[in-house]
Each structure stands twice: as C-alpha cells, then as structure tokens.
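::Amino acid chain::
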Amino acid sequence: MSDSNDKGKTDGLTDDLPGFLTKESTLTPGLAGGLTLTITNVLAVQFDAPPNYTGIALSGLMALVVVGWLQMPLLKRGIWWVLNTLVIFTVALGGNQLGVNTTGTVDPSGTPAYLGRPTGGDPATGTAPNQFMTVLSQPKGAFFANWLDGTVGKRADLLAEIKTLDQDTAKSVLKASGTTITNSNFAKEQLQAVAAQAQNAETVKLLKGNVDRLTKR
C-alpha cells in the first residue's frame, strides 16, 4: 500500500518532465525569448522603457501563455510559470548581450557612419552638400544596449541635457570626446547621434562628464 502511494506521488511530480524535455518544447522559450528581446528593445528605443523591468514583465506574460492552458494543480502551475519566466528572460537577456557584443559599443571618439559623409553636393558646380539630410538619417537610438546598468535611462537623461546646449558648447563636447566634427553647423545634432548610439553606462558617463565639465554643472 505504501509503495503504491509513493509511486502515485512520484508520478504526479514527474509526469510532465518527458514532454518538457522534448526538442519541440525547448523551442518555446527560445522563440518567446526572441520575441521578448525584440519587444523590449523597441519599447526601450522608442519610449525609454527600462529594459530590465520591461523584459522580466514580458517574460512573465509569455510564460503565462505557455503554462496557462496546462491542466495541473494551481501550485504546480505557478512553479512552472516561474521557471518558464526565468528561462525566457535569460534567453532574452543573453540574446541582447550577444547583440551588444556583435554590434560593438560606440566609441565616443569616432564618428557615426551615417554622419561620416554629407549627402549630395557637386564640387564642380559649387552645390553644397546636404548636411541636414545626413543628420536626419540618424537612428533614434542603439537597438542593443545593456539591460542591467541603467544605460537606457541614463542615455535619455543625457539626450535631454544635450538638447539644451548651443552649437558652440556641443562642438566643445565633441572635441573633448575626441570626435571628428563633420559640420560645425550641426555639431549639436552630431553629439545627439553619438549619445543615442551609446550601448552601456560607461560611454554615457564619459559623454555626460564632458557635458557637465564644459557647462560647469
């Protein structure tokens, strides 16, 4: 009688493991993690949403979809939900960090590629290059940025601070950062572009330090 009861308890704890460990089921956290990564980074770039909290919240929602239909006791379903949430978040976090490492952290002393050369213009006819269109082509922010060091929030504060600068101060900040100025008339826009591409808090801190020092804040 005792062996029968013990067997029944054991089966109740392990009967879901074979299905959980199949190759089909292991694709679920990968796909959910990729979707979480994409949505989190889009919200971070467009609305400056904190990616750490946004990512874990979206992971929880994804996990809820995964385990919500399972027929099992509430406590057991809750355990599976927590585990799936952590797995999905880990996949999303790892994928984002891989993206950061692959795309490379922007060097403040460098010039963004989309600002490196003015568009249009013809030296033969004396037509000036269209620097304004070059500046407008910049992205709003780096798609991949560190989730855990507060980069997105600090970057947003830095960009708001740069908006208050004049062109001369922006030029001074660019020079202090070792950045080649492509057009002195659009130094502020170039500085915004460099700041927007920051992928970690260290780069943001370097730029902000130059801004604060030159504005004596």
